[in-house]
Amino acid sequence: MRNFILTILLLLPVAAQAQITEATDVLKSEIDAVLNSPEGGIDRQVKVVDIGQLNVAVGVLHRGRLEGGEPARAIAHAQVTEVYYIVSGSGTLVTGGEIDEPVPFPEDSEVVDILVGPTTIGNFEGGRERTVSVGDVIVIPAGVLHGWSEIPDHVTYLSVRPDPDRVLPAGYVNPAL
After folding, report:
1. Closest CA to 59 of 124, 14, 104, 110
2. Inside any domain, residue 132
């Protein structure tokens, strides 16, 4: 939690330079509503907020059981950083390394348009594995490969997404809200 707060504090000087006069709330009830909505997939954007010099998105992700043994899928977002805060469950997260046979997501996909901007997916080659669980915070800079190699039961995590290039739609609010 301390690292999560420190990461958010690093964003404050940027936000303070802008002429923002209102705060945006992302309430637990809203996160729960988006997470529990029958519409959507693993990754669901809750809100995208314009904070002046950049946008900040808040998403919630839930992944079910994933058995290890097969090559882990790698994903990298070209312009958007992600800060994960694990709220329940655990899993083996892989970051870094190389990507085998990268495939870009279509430009008109929800992944690119709403969630994380231009993104590539493929299989990991290398990377660092570690187990993450409730309370852990992971900062994944734009361009860094990441993915899950094993999830014993489930993992649910909040993702705060600084978007300095403004590739995400400011003002977006999940339709479940």
Report:
1. 110
2. yes
